[in-house]
Design brief:
Blueprint: E1 19-27, H1 32-48, E2 54-65, E3 68-76, H2 79-86, H3 91-100, E4 105-113, E5 118-123, H4 147-150, H5 166-169
Antiparallel strand pairs: 1-3, 1-4, 2-3, 4-5
């Protein structure tokens, strides 16, 4: 029996500054399972709480089983909302702790902006995925340290969390 496809689209005109972020956490070594099981649910709860500017989140995307690699997709009203959230608790605390010790995991995100521009970061991700599978990879330093700069957006980036400036990390 043939069935007709119910093909639909969306009108995004109400969201001219929409930003979509794909993110993932990959277990690099066996001990990384502990980090994933500790941090993953915290990130899920933060998304489910819909912080200001987060329009929708889709969680529990499985990218791979061996090595275990899971992720999420978050839809933000605009980059300013996303950026403000990343500079506040709990994200600020996760990021600060992760940069000191990845706990046997890798973390990445790719950002797509409705007004144009894409950017990505890959922290302790040993094999190319996403953009890094086909585009040249550079160290995320200097002008490439901040997502705002990687997206080539105007305005100043908020300061990084205390003790986590580029100079202090490297």
């Amino acid at each position: 029996m043939k069935t007709h496809v119910d093909r639909r689209t969306v009108d995004l005109s109400l969201y001219p500054d929409l930003v979509v972020v794909y993110l993932g956490m990959r277990v690099n070594v066996l001990a990384g399972i502990r980090m994933l099981l500790r941090l993953g649910p915290q990130i899920q709860r933060a998304g489910a709480a819909l912080p200001d500017g987060l329009l929708h989140c889709e969680q529990n995307i499985i990218y791979g089983l061996v090595p275990f690699h899971v992720g999420m997709r978050w839809y933000w009203r605009d980059f300013a909302s996303l950026e403000a959230w990343t500079r506040s608790a709990p994200h600020r605390d996760w990021w600060t702790a992760f940069l000191k010790d990845s706990g046997g995991t890798g973390f990445w995100h790719e950002t797509y902006a409705m007004r144009g521009g894409m950017e990505a970061i890959y922290d302790d991700v040993p094999r190319p995925i996403g953009f890094s599978a086909f585009a040249p990879v550079s160290k995320a330093r200097g002008g490439l340290f901040s997502a705002r700069r990687r997206l080539e957006l105007n305005g100043d980036s908020p300061p990084p969390p205390e003790g986590m400036s580029e100079r202090e990390i490297y």
